[in-house]
Amino acid sequence: MPVKPEILKVTNTANSRLFKVEEIELRFSNGVERTYERLANRGRGAVMIIPVTEDNEVLLIREYAVGLEDYTLTLPKGLIDPGEDEHQAADRELKEEAGFGSHKLDTLKVMTSAPNYMGHKITAVVARELYPCRLQGDEPEEMEVVKWPLEKLDQLLLDEDFTEARAIAALYMTRSFLQK
Amino acid sequence: MPVKPEILKVTNTANSRLFKVEEIELRFSNGVERTYERLANRGRGAVMIIPVTEDNEVLLIREYAVGLEDYTLTLPKGLIDPGEDEHQAADRELKEEAGFGSHKLDTLKVMTSAPNYMGHKITAVVARELYPCRLQGDEPEEMEVVKWPLEKLDQLLLDEDFTEARAIAALYMTRSFLQK
Known about the structure:
Two copies of one chain form a homodimer. In chain A, 17% of the residues lie in helices and 44% in strands. Chain A has 180 residues and is α+β, with helices and mostly antiparallel strands.
């Protein structure tokens, strides 16, 4: 493993309600210096939930994504609230976004989104033994829930509304996990 | 498909060298109003390259990721330069980051990273028929190249240095693509 660069200086260069931008001056072990920017980490991390029915179907949600200015097909997800562990957060978000609770939660993997400029982490959690239960969250509208057979994952990838890399990775990992 | 929310107002709330933050006021079709923040889109998109050898091994790179303040195992990637198409950008980045060119490039899928707060898109490109060729890029140090058998993908997921969701998704899609 290479020797990590030395961090010479971290400067907060911009702030908004959600985002905090930092400039980081680094010296690599070969002496080369670089200045990078990144989004600072906030909060306790997030969870992405892969709800799987007894018939091996996953519950996708159709959610408005303001980054794309369009509806997108993805998996339920959300930030971990204070006092919650990953499974409690997963169960709550599943109830808020898809209207189901789960009696059987399994953690698959902690994933990063774009580690070159942000430290954000999201934990993929498989949710099984589902039962109907709706919790009121802060969602502006009720999300459409779309059932999709896990064995037809390759066809889902042809859908241009299904693009989120974290959801693609989570579904493949789930298929592999359930085959074991 | 639901009716898209009406965008009432977009305000630029923070700027740094790389990032531009926007606040968006929306009215959903049910009348509910929300104010969100997002990172504005910049540039021509990006490519992630999945280099596959004749022996069905992928070439991973070990790169310093300032978001994590650590080295991470991932796939070569980079921004598309002016005048380049996706395949030209993929071939160039592969030469810069892994020291290989490719005679056979195939586009797999356009992926998004975190569509709820950014519009960034990255195209996964499989690169085969590799040949040694190093181009000097803007990398601060030469990256270690790690060969990994595609058939042992599940074991790679156990590695805590391999976390990037876009790379996980890209490798699974590549395995599926090559099995066809």
